[in-house]
Amino acid sequence: MMKQKFFSTHNDYTGLIIRLTIGIVMFPHGARAMLGWFDGYGFTQTLEGLQQMGQPWLVGLLVIVIEFFAPIFIIMGFASRFWAIALGGLFIGIILFGGHLEHGFFMNWFGDKEGEGFEYHLLMLGLCLALFIQGSGKYSLDNLISKKLTA
């Protein structure tokens, strides 16, 4: 019964659109942190950087793992609700403890502020909440699993 609720989804395009949006936007961030792609630092340097910012190594490890694996599994539509919760938690942490609150709401569009606001993070948090409520939608592994569990 719990598995069925976990993998259940509305079989429509809404979940697909949300999944692809989150995955396409987040994958480069995770690949930068984990693999050093897109001019990133890679795993070791990212972990060290997070520790220098005051994060315990376990929190840094979770940040990197969630940023990298969540978009991949969300794009595939596998355990999307779980990954949406993980990513949503990550973005709550980034807003509260990542130094974005002190810079206000808006991103630093013109480069005239010391740091970035939290508007992007709030958008991602909203998408994660929508994915959690909606489910993975069409063309997802969750949809296939859900059908097998109900059969």
TrEMBL record:
Family, similarity comment: Belongs to the DoxX family.
Main location: membrane
Subcellular location field: Cell membrane
InterPro entries the UniProt entry points to: DoxX, DoxX-like_oxidoreductase
UniProtKB keywords: Cell membrane, Membrane, Transmembrane, Transmembrane helix
Pfam families given in the database record: DoxX
Protein name as annotated: DoxX family protein
PANTHER family: INNER MEMBRANE PROTEIN YPHA-RELATED (PTHR33452:SF1), OXIDOREDUCTASE CATD-RELATED (PTHR33452)
Transmembrane segments: 57-75, 82-101, 121-141
Membrane-protein topology: Multi-pass membrane protein
One Gene Ontology cellular component: plasma membrane
